Give the backbone structure.
Amino acid sequence: MSAAPDRPDARPLRICFVAYRGNMQCGGQGIYLWFLARELTRLGHQVDVIVGPPYPDPMPFAGAVEHVENEMYWAKWFLRDWADFVPAEAPLRALRPLHFYELAASRLGFLPEPFAFSLRALRVLAKRMRAGARYDLVHDVQCLGYGLLPMRALGLPVVTTVHHPLTVDRRASFQRDVDLADAIGSMQFYPIGMQGFVARQLDRVFTSSEASADTIERDFGVARERLTNVANGIDTELFSPDPSVPREPQRLLCIGRASDPNKGIRTLLEALARLPEAVRLTLVDSADSQAAGWASELGCRERLDLAGRVPQDELIRLYRSASLVVVPSRYEGFGLPAAEAMACGTPVVATRAGALPEVMATGGGGETVAKDDPEALARAIRGLLEAPDRLRSLGEGARDRVVEAYAWPSVAARTADEYRRVVDWRRRVGR
């Protein structure tokens, strides 16, 4: 790939986002889509969105938001919702080619959404362009379906965002598997071959950390010059300190699902068992989390509070009231809880895993320890809880650095600069 120009054209751009899931509650891609699109329009760019279900919150700042149909066969299969698997009001619709593919693939244990959505998005995009819409660039959000490649044939540069490749999720799935059948299911579920192939063909792959860039390069085979770290964004207006919210002494907070081995919750509970009786942990995980059983085994169940799935305002209150946020992960493509905590002025103890050392070095609001080491984790937590002045200093000092690096306006500006470089490069090479 030829070097991009140093001074890209600064005119406003026309961007079409494609995202196979858009709701903020269904994963990080929904949050990323909504906030990045909003900030780009605030910078003067035109944004249209083609998005699949669950659909995003209203996006009044976008020029057009087109919802792409999807019968959600995979979600129904996952929930074993056999009664509603085929829509009763229009059962023959399941025989349409893409619907039938999704139905069959879901029943066989494959994830069909990225491929099917990419073809539907291609159809919508082509229709819009025939009607007169013009774009400078298409930005895919973690779909990486084969339908993106014909978009390039329409003459449009196509970039994608990958916070971490699905190979990371597949490795975590293998850790949960208990027999050969489970392992075979994990192997076939993730569309890694398709996503890796598509990623290698696109004009640029955006990611959120150098650690993620390394993983994408290694696992997907994407050339390093096609990878750009633009970081992840935080709504630093919402995630902010509030002196009126009192800190709860000896209160730890962790956001993570015990069912995901990458989150390191078992290690955190082993550390909690080593800490003084006064130390309590709030874990933002489902009420039926297996963390409760682990804590009982370790003799610290009475000091574990399961918060369930909390709305955003309650999550922010938890960040503000905690003495310390703990991120015990075994891998993170970015480490949003660490950055959000520091934006709220709360210090962090995190593991040296994935992108967490980068985020912690940027914010400077805490300490890092080796992953999978409950003794080291307990020692770092105990040391900070016993030094309240240092605890307060770490929290207060991190806020400004996190805002500078991760506030959405900064991330959007960096992303727009990369758009221009990609557009200008495509024009120069004539393809």
About this structure: The chain is about 45% helix and 15% strand. The radius of gyration is 22 Å. The first strand starts at residue 14 and ends at 19. The chain has two domains: 14-233+408-429, 251-406.
